[in-house]
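hiii so um. not sure if this is the right channel but i have a protein structure encoded as tokens and i wanna go backwards to a sequence. like what aa goes where. can anyone help
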């Protein structure tokens, strides 16, 4: 994989040292805004990238690059991905893939037509502890209740209250608790159980953006609540309750740091097979393998999962609009 990165923000700075450790990934270029070009040049020098630019065409026209990683604000994902696919580049896009399901569907069609790969960077689907959870589901009987809580007080919330709107709180840029923190909960639940029968999102809104909210998903045989907040904090923990026991995830759903399994009448068993690697390393190891071996089946399965998640996000947003219209 000959990779170029879009953006110089926090997520790109976090992933660069991870990518440096993944065998098969060659870091080639980085894109920034003209205002941040100096920062891009410093990152390029630090990680031995040959291209640092504020012109997207420089990356798209380079034969030294075969894959584009999109780590820019949520509202830019679709346009950047579309241009990359049409230029014959594989695309790895940060969550959420797009802000609209129709946009993701269009990208899927484009990727197929151009015969390139399209993948969503979503950590929890590729972590070893995710496989542990799937295996332990067979031991806890019939699932009855699922609850995920990923709440953390945002460092930008105080500024937001003063009227200083960062992208994380800008509704026009796809900000808010649903698309930022709750999306990890949704990916986890959909990855384990598929699409729900119904979706309702109850959001606390300030200045037009959901600063916190509760997503209720009905799977018929069990019910699920996904909580995320950027305006308040609580213990970050998730539980899956079955009639023969329970599974607890002790920590954020983006890293699944520790899994605790408690069967009825038995002592809790703590499991962690994530091997101490950075939470983003496992996904890029899989992406590198998919591209190197041209594993279209694995890529298609990942896309189908992403489409299911996007369906939940869209239904959640629609339910919020419907709720507000009746108030």
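sure thing!! here u go:
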């Amino acid at each position: 994989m000959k990779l170029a990165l879009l953006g110089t923000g926090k997520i790109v700075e976090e992933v660069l040292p991870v990518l440096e450790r993944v065998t098969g990934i060659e870091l080639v270029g980085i894109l920034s805004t003209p205002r941040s070009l100096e920062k891009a040049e410093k990152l390029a020098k630090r990680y031995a990238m040959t291209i640092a630019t504020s012109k997207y065409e420089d990356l798209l026209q380079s034969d030294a690059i075969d894959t584009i990683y999109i780590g820019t604000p949520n509202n830019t994902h679709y346009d950047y991905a579309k241009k990359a696919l049409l230029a014959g580049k594989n695309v790895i896009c940060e969550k959420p893939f797009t802000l609209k399901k129709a946009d993701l569907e269009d990208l899927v069609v484009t990727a197929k037509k151009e015969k390139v790969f399209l993948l969503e960077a979503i950590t929890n689907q590729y972590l070893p502890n995710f496989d542990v959870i799937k295996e332990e589901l067979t031991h806890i009987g019939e699932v009855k209740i699922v609850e995920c809580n990923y709440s953390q007080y945002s460092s930008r919330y105080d500024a937001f209250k003063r009227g200083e709107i960062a992208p994380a709180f800008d509704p026009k840029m796809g900000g808010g608790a649903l698309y930022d923190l709750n999306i990890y909960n949704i990916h986890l639940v959909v990855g384990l159980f598929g699409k729900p029968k119904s979706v309702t999102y109850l959001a606390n809104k300030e200045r037009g953006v959901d600063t916190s909210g509760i997503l209720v998903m009905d799977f018929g045989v069990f019910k699920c609540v996904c909580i995320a907040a950027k305006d308040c904090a609580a213990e970050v923990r998730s539980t899956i309750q079955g009639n023969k026991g329970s599974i607890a995830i002790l920590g954020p759903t983006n890293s699944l740091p520790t899994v605790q399994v408690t069967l009825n009448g038995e002592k809790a068993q703590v499991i962690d097979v994530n091997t101490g690697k950075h939470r983003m390393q496992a996904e890029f190891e899989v992406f590198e393998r998919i591209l190197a071996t041209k594993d279209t089946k694995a890529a298609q399965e990942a896309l189908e999962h992403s489409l299911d998640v996007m369906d939940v996000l869209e239904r959640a947003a629609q339910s919020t609009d419907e709720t507000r219209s009746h108030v």
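oh and DSSP finds eleven helices and 14 strands in the chain.
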